[in-house]
């Protein structure tokens, strides 16, 4: 009723359906002799409905993240790449839109200022790529620069810093 008052002719209804999920998550890493370490994560999931011939709604596309870290005695720096495949296996029942693939580069660093004090900083999405995360929502209000019904875009480049003190 509320969705209809807001002008949404196809509101989501929270209900279980007979479905099937298959997938795999993989974490790998290797510590080279010396200061280099490589770490990676890969994810794949496929969701289908078993009651009708359709895909499940909001299933993350296959993706992989790989980071290369240089570790010195009191500091480290990491270069991280993330690649996400186009998601075209979408729910027709829920009028789900496909999303394109994308690749991001991020940089992170840590510096142990003294015992129990660490300063961390980073830049996520270094090149400020514009993309749509398949799991982000759709714009449901008429205000702002994003048309109603369009997927909410990525947040763009992000900077952060953190000071950690452990007692």
Automatic annotation (TrEMBL):
Topology relative to the membrane: Multi-pass membrane protein
Tell me which positions the record assigns to the signal sequence: none
Q: Which UniProt keywords apply?
A: Cell outer membrane, Membrane, TonB box, Transmembrane, Transmembrane beta strand, Transport
Example GO BP: siderophore transmembrane transport
Keyword Membrane annotated: yes
Q: Which domain of life is it from?
A: Bacteria
Question: Which InterPro entries does this one have?
Answer: Beta-barrel_TonB, Beta-barrel_TonB_sf, TonB-dep_rcpt-like
Gene3D superfamilies, alphabetically? TonB-dependent receptor, beta-barrel domain
Where does the protein end up?
Cell outer membrane
Q: Name one GO molecular function term.
A: siderophore uptake transmembrane transporter activity
- Per the database record, which ranges form the TonB-dependent receptor-like beta-barrel domain? 9-126
Q: What GO cellular component entries does it have? A: cell outer membrane
Q: Does the keyword ATP-binding apply?
A: no
Predominant location of this chain?
Answer: membrane
PANTHER family recorded: OUTER MEMBRANE PROTEIN C, TONB-DEPENDENT OUTER MEMBRANE RECEPTOR
Q: What is this protein called?
A: TonB-dependent receptor-like beta-barrel domain-containing protein
